[in-house]
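Translate sequence into structure tokens.
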Amino acid sequence: MASDLKRGYEFFSNPKTTFNKLTQPSFKQTAQEIYGIPIVLAVGDTTYLDYKKILEKRDDYGPTGNGGNGLILHSSLALDPDFGQPLGLLWEKLWHRQHKVSPPPGETSPAKKKRLKKERLIAKNRAFKEKESYRWVEAFQKVNKLFKNLEMPDGGLLTRVIHVFDREGDIAEVFALQRKNKNTGVVVRAAHNRCLSGENSYLWEYVTSQKVQFVKEVKLPETKKRKERTATLEIRYCPVSINPPSRLKKSGNFNVYALFATEINVPDGCEPVTWMLLTSELVTTQAEASQILRWYTYRWRIEEYHKILKSGCKAESYRLAGADFSREILKPRKSVTFSTT
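Result follows.
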């Protein structure tokens, strides 16, 4: 047992041992196993791994909000499109934010305003690949590359990967990328009231003015903000042509379908559900609209995965502790260093 523990510390402390090298074989195996299925959903989400109690790693990790300190994990989980059955992970990215520099002592109010304005300008002018929002585009690219490099199984089909993102994934670059990649699609919950081409209108105003096509009940899981309940939703849908932002003018308009679901007969004390979904997939019938709505609800599976990762697998616990016992194990080879993550 002592020798196994020693080898474990040596393995994790080796600079050649990286998160990507440890996870890539698993991602590739998942893709290989499901390649040939006609449609696979790749649902994405971000979670925070908080290690604020681990003072030894304070400088190696970064702020996660609300006083937390730790790592950020973005995952892409493959799901069966019919029942939302998890099929395995396709990609994960792990990183941390940089700690902000403390303001100079005795900073005056005008100086503070000037400093913050400069910081906002620097953040705004950063290259897109340097921004955290790039992770949604990166997930799209990495998953597509994963399938592209696989050999087609005998008698198999080209798998169409549908990326399902929440509001953080409502990025114009996602739609531009989808259009360039065959056998890919997107279902994204809209966050921006984008300008529409030829309608002299904006997304929300135009889509909500369409007639209700049908009513559907959707079971909502329990969250921190609501109890589990069944919501009755009015469904509207129509094609829209979205003007690209100035940075993507050469990309042309994004021709997608919009599906708007809004809750009626809302129980007292409950916040009504309102979803504006944008998708590259065809939505011209009730069956097609119901399918897109169902696919979006499967996005909750990624939240369940992250919950299991933290509560069941104890991902936020201090697993490789630098305690006296571990130091004793490593004593014979003083040149060995080990990580306390």
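Note: The longest strand covers residues 229-242.
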